[in-house]
Amino acid sequence: MFKTLMLVSGAILLTACARPYGPAETIINKQIVEPKPNTPQTKVTVTRNMQFIGGGSGGMCRFLVQIDGKDIAKLRQNQFVTAFLDNGTHLLRVSNECDVASMGMRKSLEIVADGGEQEYIAENGFWGQYRMWRVK
Is 121 exposed, middle or buried (0-12, 13-18, 19+ CB in 10 A)? Predict the structure, then answer.
């Protein structure tokens, strides 16, 4: 009986904490999130994972997403931003908007926009490092 009660309580707690992924609330560069007609572009989506553990700032500080040194959006946990990049090589970077806590930590990837849709996941590691990898 006790095990069943604990299992049900745990399931309810996880369900209450789970949030579906949603779009970024703060878009800084609105031109890059809109496709350009008649221009060869690649759709690139960056999602910030929901985390229960990880970097000290957790959900307080948003991730700043940059492409080619230009600020694109700020992401809270479970948020994403989709950008439309002209085909070619670009530098994708995530860092922390809280300058004091970030200590210069960030993750950068050189990506090749080739016309195929791309998706990246970003998160904080346990020691505060930034991780980002391609999933599609």
Answer: middle
